[in-house]
From TrEMBL:
Chain intervals for the UniProt region annotation (Disordered): 415-491
Subcellular location(s) of the protein: Cell inner membrane; Cell membrane
Keyword Hydrolase (UniProt): no
Taxonomic lineage of the native organism: Bacteria, Bacillati, Actinomycetota, Actinomycetes, Kitasatosporales
Protein name: Na(+)/H(+) antiporter NhaA
Keyword DNA damage in record: no
Superkingdom of this protein's organism: Bacteria
Predominant cellular place of this UniProt entry's protein: membrane
Skewed-composition ranges (Basic and acidic residues): 425-448, 470-491
Keyword annotations of the record: Antiport, Cell membrane, Ion transport, Membrane, Sodium, Sodium transport, Transmembrane, Transmembrane helix, Transport
Job description of the protein: Na(+)/H(+) antiporter that extrudes sodium in exchange for external protons.
Record's bilayer topology term: Multi-pass membrane protein
A Pfam family the protein falls into: Na_H_antiport_1
Source species: Streptomyces gobitricini
């Protein structure tokens, strides 16, 4: 797997410095995008997540199944006196450790909004609208199949995309999936996370204690004030973060939202010459990907399928509503909205992404494992409905992964990763370093730079109104390859 990841995800880092010496080599190394590091850790973390989920299923259906239930139902208390909090182990994982996962998501969202792909309006329009379609259509499909009542409360389950699983599939495909398809899927998944967080905060909060909520807001204001004063050492924020988490937990709002809020408060640009957000993400992302999320899977994916439970689940509407939402809803929502946005010329695909890769990326969006399981426990209290939902999530995620992999593998080859290798005249090329599916070279869907060789070989897009001179497709690799952080404070 390490070889697949290295060949599929780090080709830019290797080729970026090929034939480049001296200061240019140092610049190329400095430009290596934090986004690629994020992809790298997520792809490897996806493998660990699969192992954890399979382990939970085996454990829950083995002769030691009773031990699985007893282990996660053990009660653990933290604090003392009036501040004593007691929950079972599964609850501590879901409401405690998962705060770190959502904090890392908050960091990634902040970076992409301020200095990343989503800061450019045109570049962000297509993935943002595609993600919206990929959230609304699955929810509507779920309601259409499951109906109302208690079962209808699970409409938020098929809205989310599991980045770790999806990027893991892309890593296995290697160069069969273009760099543009990887960037498109990650951007959609990030917007998906924003929507899912909003759904959790607004629709899955049953009780609300305003005093505790006010305490959480006060803690966030303290953190913002510390940031305004130029405090850049992360450990000084830990006590404030713990207080914000505890107040959020007691307020009735799901405690993981405290992690998102604190992540969004983190400055995306250097403070006093220090890249706080990059340092935090580099330190915490491995902990989240290789410890927290696998523990969450181990605690929540253990479904007892013995005694006809699997057959019973496939006879229930909740199971099929989730499968319909995640498998069909994502393809129709993401793929349909992407087609519409391109037809209306509101946005453009990332450079190097073939239009037939859209359906493959949309299908991978149906891998809704982690956040879907998370919303399941918020939506349902009935053990039967929870079991049916988990069967639906696992089944849909497998179908979505296989469908997306087949669609991407059979799509015309993308142009691969962008490269910083210089042309003989000193210009840099974007993606025109290899031939794709035989009828095009590079990402040449329109003339550029005076019609240099290799940019005009692909049929299909020629003559389409609005394509000539449009900056859309060119913005993505330039945004992706330029340095994330500027040496100025703010945000």
């Amino acid at each position: 797997m390490d070889i697949a990841i290295a060949s599929g995800m780090t080709v830019v880092d290797r080729r970026a410095t090929e034939g480049v010496t001296g200061p240019i080599r140092r610049v190329a190394a400095a430009v290596a995008s934090p986004l690629r590091a994020f992809l790298h850790a997520e792809s490897a973390g996806g493998i660990v997540l699969v192992v954890a989920a399979v382990s939970a299923l085996v454990w829950a259906n083995s002769p030691a199944a009773d031990g699985y239930a007893r282990f996660w139902q053990q009660e653990v208390s933290l604090g003392g006196g009036g501040a004593r909090v007691t929950h079972d182990l599964r609850h501590w994982v879901n409401d405690g450790l998962m705060v770190l996962f959502f904090f890392v998501i908050g960091l990634e969202i902040k970076r992409e909004l301020v200095v990343g792909e989503l800061r450019d309006r045109r570049a962000a329009t297509l993935p943002a609208l595609a993600a919206l379609g990929g959230a609304v259509i699955p929810a509507l499909m779920y309601v259409a199949v499951a109906g109302g009542g208690e079962a209808g409360r699970g409409w938020g389950i098929p809205m989310a995309t599991d980045i770790a699983f999806a990027v893991g599939v892309l890593a296995l495909l290697g160069r069969r999936a273009s760099s543009g398809a990887k960037l498109f899927l990650l951007s959609v998944a990030i917007v998906d996370d924003i929507l899912a967080i909003g759904v959790i905060a607004i629709f899955y909060t049953e009780r609300l204690n305003l005093w505790w909520l006010a305490g959480a807001v006060a803690g966030l204001l303290v953190a913002a004030g510390m940031r305004g004063l130029g405090v850049s050492r992360p450990w000084t924020y830990v006590p404030v973060g713990v207080l914000v988490w505890f107040a959020t937990l007691e307020s009735g709002v799901h405690a993981t939202l405290a992690g998102v809020a604190l992540g969004l408060l983190t400055p995306a640009r250097p403070v006093a010459g220090r890249g706080v957000l990059d340092d935090l993400e580099r330190s915490l992302h491995p902990v989240s990907a290789f410890l927290v999320v696998p523990l969450f899977a181990l605690a929540n994916a253990g479904i007892d399928l013995r005694g006809g439970a699997l057959g019973d689940a496939f006879g229930r509407t909740v199971t099929w509503a989730i499968i319909a939402g995640l498998v069909l809803g994502k393809i129709v929502g993401i793929g349909g909205v992407t087609y519409l946005v391109r037809r209306l010329d509101w946005g453009a695909l990332p450079a190097g992404m073939h239009h037939r890769e859209v359906l493959g990326a949309a299908a991978l969006g149906g891998i809704g494992f982690t956040v879907s399981l998370f919303i399941t426990d918020l939506a349902f209290t009935d053990a039967g409905l929870i079991g049916q939902a988990k069967v639906g999530i696992l089944t849909a995620s497998v179908i979505a992964a296989l469908t997306g992999a087949v669609l991407l593998f059979t799509a015309p080859a993308g142009t691969g990763a962008a490269t910083l290798s210089p042309r003989p005249n000193g210009d840099r090329t974007g993606d025109g370093d290899r031939t794709g599916d035989g009828d095009r070279t590079g990402d040449g869907d329109r003339p550029r730079n005076g019609g240099r060789p290799g940019d005009q070989g692909r049929p299909g897009d020629q003559g389409r109104p609005g394509d000539q001179g449009r900056p859309g497709d060119r913005d993505w690799p330039r945004n992706r390859d330029r340095p994330r952080n500027r040496d100025r404070p703010g945000n």
